[in-house]
Amino acid sequence: MKSFQEGFWRTLFRPRCPACGDGYLFQKFVGFLPQCPSCSFEYTQWVKDDGPAFFVLSILCAVVVPLAIWVEVAFEPALWVHIVAWTALIFIGTVLMLRPVKAVWIYCQWYFRASKKDT
Fold first, then answer.
1. Closest C-alpha to 94, from 40, 50, 37
2. Domain count, the chain
3. Tens of pLDDT along 8-50?
4. Which of 7, 51, 86, 112 is paired with 102 by a 20 to 30 Å CA distance?
5. Model confidence over 41-56: pLDDT tens digits?
6. Whole-angstrom Cα distance, residue 73 to residue 50?
């Protein structure tokens, strides 16, 4: 079995089946397949709720809020500049981060043997 850190980083940058490492996890942009096309490992046993979205938004807000405060203090832009800039940054960041974070979420559940039946 590979180490947790190795699997974590591999899954973050290349979202594949945690069991075999070859099959795809996603059917569409963030929708999961029911099972791995390579090894037929069932993906339906894992909890895929709002956890990844919570972590993505928490990380983005931890970055955006101090950045917005700094921009306000340093440059004093108009309110519409804040609205446009930070909304776009949060939207783009969410789109870029959600899929890898969901893949890592599934990898962690697989690695630590957590599933729906454990809850």
1. 50
2. 1
3. 999 999 999 998 989 999 988 888 999 999 999 998 888 888 9
4. 86
5. 998 888 888 999 999 9
6. 34
Closest CA to 67 of 52, 49, 85: 85
Q: Give pairs for 15-23: CB < 8 Å, separation 24+.
A: 15/99, 15/100, 15/102, 15/103, 16/103, 17/41, 18/106, 18/107, 18/110, 18/111, 19/110
**pLDDT, position 1:** 55
Question: Which of 84, 87, 109, 114 is closest to 11 using CA atoms?
Answer: 109
Domain residues for 66? 4-118
User: What contacts 56, CB < 8 A, 6 or more positions away?
Assistant: 93, 94, 97, 98, 101
